[in-house]
Design brief:
single chain; alpha/beta; DNA polymerase, domain 1; TIM Barrel; 2 domains; seven-stranded parallel β-sheet; 46% helix
């Protein structure tokens, strides 16, 4: 097995298990440290002991490389694969997951993600995605290194270049969509310049502040974002956290009937956020949104390559609540998706 691929795959599975970032990054650093070495040079350094002395190569990474060079799947990687394979999903959830074509909510190291845009795209390709929306945060969310107007404009140039490079390489690859996870401000406005939002393929609008405000305040803010013609998706609508390293957080209170009626009227999708710690919205609100006639977007909210596989959890919840497949926008082909997402621009 290729040692560099083995190290990268280990990082992927650790991310999927939500292992500590430092543990994941150790394997990504090891993979990067070896990337410039030829196969012959790597093997030579493993034989004569120089590999052990290389910066970025720890004891576990060294063991993985040696076992991969010996021709087998490293034990550490096999254990991670086995653990992932032991997860069980319903037939309905598995069938829905197979119909998902893309993901409209992902992050890179331009804001608070852990890897480059290119690495996220490569992982999406390996998972068989047709398209991936890059939705780094907006400037108001300073804790997440939100993008200023100038930085967002620069990121849009990168998105264009990545798509051009894939075309020039003769590789259809993953269509990278330009996007943003834009903060919903206190007055319901979107936290980015309108002319920049008009250039994007996908706008996910989310609440990240004052989540414990009273029902009327939260309702007003959500309605402000939903009625903005640039908004495509309302992300993690209740803001709740049900488990995980950040602790728990109760869901925001809002007039769900008014909010979901507005989503249906303005063709704004309600996100089914696939992150295990969010599971947002809760099942009762998913069912209310179905009854209201809403569209849905099953998204990973990935902040690392391994998180992209969280879509399995979102598909499982959507199937359990009998969300109509034809109303899940991330099952649509990219041409139809863009016709919908850009309709209000």
């Amino acid at each position: 097995m290729d040692p560099i691929q083995a190290l990268s795959e280990i990082a992927f599975w650790l991310e999927r298990e939500r292992a500590p970032v430092f543990k994941v990054q150790a394997f990504r650093r090891s993979s990067a440290a070896l990337a410039s070495l030829s196969e012959r040079e790597l093997a030579a350094r493993a034989r004569d002991g120089r590999l052990k002395a290389m910066k970025g190569i720890g004891g576990r990474s060294l063991e993985v490389v040696q076992q991969a060079l010996a021709g087998g799947v490293p034990d550490y990687l096999q254990n991670l694969r086995d653990h992932a394979a032991a997860e069980t999903f319903s037939d309905a959830g598995t069938a829905l997951f197979a119909q998902l074509r893309g993901d409209l909510h992902t992050h890179s190291d331009w804001s608070d993600g852990t890897t480059s845009v290119q690495t996220m795209v490569q992982a999406a390709a390996a998972l068989g995605r047709d398209y991936l929306a890059l939705t780094d945060h907006s400037p108001n969310l300073t804790i997440a290194n939100g993008l200023s107007a100038d930085r967002l404009a620069a990121e849009l140039d990168l998105v264009d270049q990545i798509n051009i490079d894939q075309i020039n390489a003769g590789d259809g690859g993953v269509r990278l969509l330009s996007g943003i996870e834009v903060d919903i401000l206190d007055d319901g406005a979107l936290d980015q310049q309108p002319e920049l939002l008009d250039r994007l393929d996908v706008v996910v609008a989310s609440l990240h502040s004052h989540l414990r405000a009273d029902e009327s305040t939260v309702t007003r803010r959500l309605l402000g974002a939903i009625t903005d013609p640039r908004t495509n998706v309302i992300g993690h609508i209740t803001g709740r956290l049900v488990e995980g390293g950040r602790g728990t957080r109760p869901q925001s209170q809002f007039d769900a009937q008014r909010v979901f009626a507005a989503c249906a009227e303005h063709h704004v999708a309600v996100e089914i956020n696939s992150r295990p710690e969010r599971q947002d919205p809760p099942d009762d609100l998913v069912r209310l949104a179905i009854d209201a006639g809403c569209l849905f977007s099953i998204d990973s909210d990935a902040h690392a390559p391994g998180h992209l596989d969280f879509l399995r959890y979102g598909a499982e919840r959507a199937a359990a609540n009998a969300v109509p497949v034809h109303r899940i926008v991330t099952t649509w082909p990219v041409e139809r998706l863009l016709e919908w997402s850009r309709a209000g621009r």
